[in-house]
Amino acid sequence: MPLVEPNARAGGAGLPRGARLVETDGVDVVRATGSANVNTINRAISPQAAGESHTFVFEVDGVRQAPLQLTAEQVRRTPVQFVKSIDTGSGRVGYMLFNDHITTSETQLINAVNQLRNEGVQDLVLDMRYNGGGQLNIASRLAYMVSEPAATNGKVFEQLVFNDKNPFRLTPAQTLIPFHATSRNGAPLPRLGLSRVTVLVGPDTCSASESVINGLRGADVSVNLVGGTTCGKPYGFSPQDNCGTSYFAIQFQGVNAKNFGDYGDGFRPDCAVADDFAHPLGDPSEARLAAALAMRNGGACPAASFSKSLRSFEKPSVSETEPYLRNRTPLREMRVLDMPG
Predict the structure, then answer these.
(1) pTM of structure
(2) What pLDDT score does 336 carry?
(3) 8 Å CB contact between 308 and 316
(4) DSSP letter assigned to residue 334
């Protein structure tokens, strides 16, 4: 398990990041074969209704744990977690995990930036390795809060490029998304005022998360990437409802202030580091965060980190190219045109 939601039953049961599922409802998930066993496993990990109970057995640090019964329920996500400052030999560095560009994340991001600003951070490590995307206006506000005023004043965060159909009939001015300086309720946003930021990324860093990277680079903010290649989705949509069904048809491409948006193969990291499930997220010893801190101090990607993941740039195996968050839907991998602004 790469991530445990704090409000979920697994989090409440103390299940740690990195726990390995080995059995569910009596079926060995590693060695079992046959459609009946596959169906049992799928029902357990993807329950169809709240209230379903299933029994799971995990290994933690190679030790088989006692069976754990979990009941399916609706979970309110916590998009921003582990906000902290880390003292280094060359200054104080802020860290935060950001997992979803959803409406509820705005207040959490504002609170995080205020906390880090009050703690006097000089740099930021923004962890978006599991952030599948969401609302572009959230991405724009995050980029604004990270950057310094001189970089973004009068700049476009992202321009929406349509084909000749242009389903929303937007004027050229309406296709421009600025670096939003205020929240949804019109309050001024706080700023860290940084000229550089390090982003922890991977194959689940997608869509609106990539917009943050691309938008900041378009405004000449230095963005260093540590981890794995991002998913590569410079496209987006506004969901269309019809007779009870929502359609997610691709409608536009996003480009930054330098008119760049051709990253369908994803953004490759400046420092390739495999995900480290042996340490909690936000732990300075966690491989990707440790590499980011080392690069800040020494300016170079740690050689051990690079060689560990170098094979992924040659001919990666299936396990290295598959995303960590297997159950991906349009709502987990989106760049949404949030029409109200």
Answers:
(1) 0.86
(2) 60
(3) no
(4) -
Residues 6+ away with beta carbon under 8 Å from 314:
none
Element (H, E) at 88: strand 80-88
Helix axes 136-146, 208-218, angle to 10 degrees: 40
What tens digit of pLDDT does each residue of 265-297 get?
Answer: 999 999 999 999 999 999 999 999 999 999 987
Sort 220 into a burial class: Cβ within 10 Å, 0-12 / 13-18 / 19+.
middle
Torsion over CA of 282, 287, 292 and 293, rounded to 10 degrees? Answer: 70
Full 3-state SS string of 166-218: CCCCCCCHHHEEECCCECCCCCECCCCCECEEEEEECCCCCCHHHHHHHHHHH
| Residue 228 dihedral angles phi and psi, to the nearest 5° | -125, 175
Joined together, the tokens standing for residue 126 give 């923004």
Q: Is 129 helix (H, G, I), strand (E, B) or coil?
A: coil
pLDDT tens figures, 53-105:
999 999 998 999 999 999 998 888 899 999 999 999 889 999 999 999 999 99
Decide: 227 and 273 in contact? Cβ < 8 Å: yes
